[in-house]
Structure formats: structure tokens, C-alpha cells
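Researcher: Structure prediction, please.
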Amino acid sequence: MKLTHEKIIILLYIITLITAISSRTVNNWYLAALLILGLSAVKFFFVFFQFMDMKHANSFWKTLIIIYLVAFTGAVGIILNL
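Model: Predicted structure follows.
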């Protein structure tokens, strides 16, 4: 299935709605923060590869951004756990 810009935009809207709803309905703040952090990482991943046209970039840049994303979300997750 080919993901077009329209499908990605709809998916980003859905993820944003899930984030907004979960911030108000999840009672455990740690779980809510991890859910929001994970969803924002997914949104960043979609935007990076679809709209910044990094699908056709050098594999070094793809690897670098994935390492950055994992390191950032991991660091924030560790800080939230303290």
C-alpha cells in the first residue's frame, strides 16, 4: 500500500486527536507522558520521511535521524522515570 501525502496527513490528524484525548483521559501521568512521547516520535518519523523527502536520502542521514529519535525519546523516558 502506497502512503500518499493525503493519507499521511489524515494519519497525523488521527494521532494528534489520540494524543489530545489521552492527555485528558489517562489518569496515570507517567503512562500518559510515555504515550504522548511515543505518538510524537511516530509523528516525527512520518513527517521526516514523507514530507522532508528523506526516503531517497543517503542511508547515513536515515540512520542518524533514527538514532537521534531513539536517543531523545529514551532520554526523556528515563527523565520521566526519575
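Model: The chain has one domain: 5-81.
Researcher: Thanks, that helps.
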